[in-house]
């Protein structure tokens, strides 16, 4: 079944990890996908890899989502080059971990600017086409730490909690146009981001996951694809934890 035939999607942070898997899942079911990431090499490589399996599905765009003007320009470019967007996935995210006592102002600003302001920038830039689109969807990738917090991640937890509040406000504001807006809150997923953890930290984390292991990027992509589908039309303003039971 091609759930996304004739659909156009934008996936930020699509160059690696969870975002690349989301782009692949949407492309596999017929979507044309704009793969957006910070560096040209990363989004270019991701698009090339997905195009090898699903020819012509992906176009790469190197843009910093924290840059408001650049995201406005990106929206225009995607509109001209691919078409009007139906699905926006805000997945770009960074960490700058450290205990609050040692956290620098720039660590706070970088994380909030990317993870939270980045979503504000893209929703502002793409909301007009979304409001006119068929089956319009916004899906924000939050985190379980935006729900339960995490020592050493005050900046990241605040950005993800903010993203959850933003999700609910956007869901209410755009509901009249049938645009749904939901958040997915991953637990610990195997990507470059979690590769930074030491083995001792990984073991401690796994001890707190009822299902007993880190998740895979496919676990998140499957949830995003469902929320992006026609079948999810009556779901909005919700947060779905995909976390092996961590937050139950
Ligand atoms: N992995 C986990 O366990 C986990 C858990 C909970 C939530 N999440 C969230 O899931 C999302 C994806 O995580 P991941 O683990 O796949 O991360 P990742 O492997 O570190 O990849 C992050 C992606 O975001 C892009 N990105 C970062 N800053 C950007 C910016 N300013 N503008 C545009 N793109 C930017 C990166 O671009 P480049 O490739 O060009 O550098 C990269 O493609 C993030 O929002 C993260 O917070 C992850």
From TrEMBL:
<dbReference type="GO" id="GO:0051287">
    <property type="term" value="F:NAD binding"/>
</dbReference>
<comment type="function">
    <text>Catalyzes the NADPH-dependent reduction of beta-ketoacyl-ACP substrates to beta-hydroxyacyl-ACP products, the first reductive step in the elongation cycle of fatty acid biosynthesis.</text>
</comment>
<comment type="subunit">
    <text>Homotetramer.</text>
</comment>
<comment type="pathway">
    <text>Lipid metabolism; fatty acid biosynthesis.</text>
</comment>
<feature type="binding site">
    <location>
        <begin position="156"/>
        <end position="160"/>
    </location>
    <ligand>
        <name>NADP(+)</name>
    </ligand>
</feature>
<keyword id="KW-0521">NADP</keyword>
<dbReference type="InterPro" id="IPR011284">
    <property type="entry name" value="3oxo_ACP_reduc"/>
</dbReference>
<feature type="binding site">
    <location>
        <position position="91"/>
    </location>
    <ligand>
        <name>NADP(+)</name>
    </ligand>
</feature>
<dbReference type="Pfam" id="PF13561">
    <property type="entry name" value="adh_short_C2"/>
</dbReference>
<dbReference type="InterPro" id="IPR057326">
    <property type="entry name" value="KR_dom"/>
</dbReference>
<dbReference type="InterPro" id="IPR002347">
    <property type="entry name" value="SDR_fam"/>
</dbReference>
<protein>
    <recommendedName>
        <fullName>3-oxoacyl-[acyl-carrier-protein] reductase</fullName>
        <ecNumber>1.1.1.100</ecNumber>
    </recommendedName>
</protein>
<feature type="domain" description="Ketoreductase">
    <location>
        <begin position="7"/>
        <end position="192"/>
    </location>
</feature>
<feature type="binding site">
    <location>
        <position position="189"/>
    </location>
    <ligand>
        <name>NADP(+)</name>
    </ligand>
</feature>
<keyword id="KW-0443">Lipid metabolism</keyword>
<dbReference type="GO" id="GO:0004316">
    <property type="term" value="F:3-oxoacyl-[acyl-carrier-protein] reductase (NADPH) activity"/>
</dbReference>
<keyword id="KW-0444">Lipid biosynthesis</keyword>
<dbReference type="InterPro" id="IPR050259">
    <property type="entry name" value="SDR"/>
</dbReference>
<keyword id="KW-0276">Fatty acid metabolism</keyword>
<dbReference type="GO" id="GO:0006633">
    <property type="term" value="P:fatty acid biosynthetic process"/>
</dbReference>
<dbReference type="InterPro" id="IPR020904">
    <property type="entry name" value="Sc_DH/Rdtase_CS"/>
</dbReference>
<feature type="active site" description="Proton acceptor">
    <location>
        <position position="156"/>
    </location>
</feature>
<comment type="similarity">
    <text>Belongs to the short-chain dehydrogenases/reductases (SDR) family.</text>
</comment>
<feature type="binding site">
    <location>
        <begin position="13"/>
        <end position="16"/>
    </location>
    <ligand>
        <name>NADP(+)</name>
    </ligand>
</feature>
<keyword id="KW-0275">Fatty acid biosynthesis</keyword>
<dbReference type="InterPro" id="IPR036291">
    <property type="entry name" value="NAD(P)-bd_dom_sf"/>
</dbReference>
<keyword id="KW-0560">Oxidoreductase</keyword>
């Amino acid at each position: 079944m091609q759930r996304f035939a004739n659909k156009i999607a934008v996936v930020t942070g699509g160059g690696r990890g969870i975002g690349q898997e989301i782009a692949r899942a949407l492309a596999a079911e017929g979507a044309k996908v704009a793969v957006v990431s910070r560096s040209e090499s990363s989004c270019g490589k991701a698009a090339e890899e997905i195009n090898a399996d699903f020819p012509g599905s992906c176009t790469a765009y190197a843009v910093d989502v924290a840059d408001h003007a650049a995201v406005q320009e990106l929206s225009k470019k995607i509109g001209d080059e691919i078409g009007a967007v139906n699905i926006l996935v805000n997945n770009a995210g960074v960490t700058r971990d450290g205990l609050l006592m040692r956290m620098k102002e720039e660590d706070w600003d970088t994380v909030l600017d990317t993870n939270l302001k980045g979503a504000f920038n893209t929703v502002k830039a793409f909301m007009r086409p979304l409001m006119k689109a068929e089956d319009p969807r916004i899906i924000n990738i939050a985190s379980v730490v935006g729900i339960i917090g995490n020592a050493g991640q005050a900046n990241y937890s605040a950005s993800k909690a903010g993203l959850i509040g933003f999700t609910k406000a956007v869901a209410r504001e755009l509901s009249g146009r049938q645009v749904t807006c939901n958040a997915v809150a991953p637990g610990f997923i195997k990507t470059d981001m979690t590769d930074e953890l030491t083995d001792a930290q990984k073991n401690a984390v796994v001890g707190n996951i009822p299902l007993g292991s880190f998740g895979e990027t496919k676990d998140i992509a499957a949830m995003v694809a469902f929320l992006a589908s026609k079948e999810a039309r009556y779901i909005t303003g919700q947060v779905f934890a995909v976390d092996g039971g961590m937050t139950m």
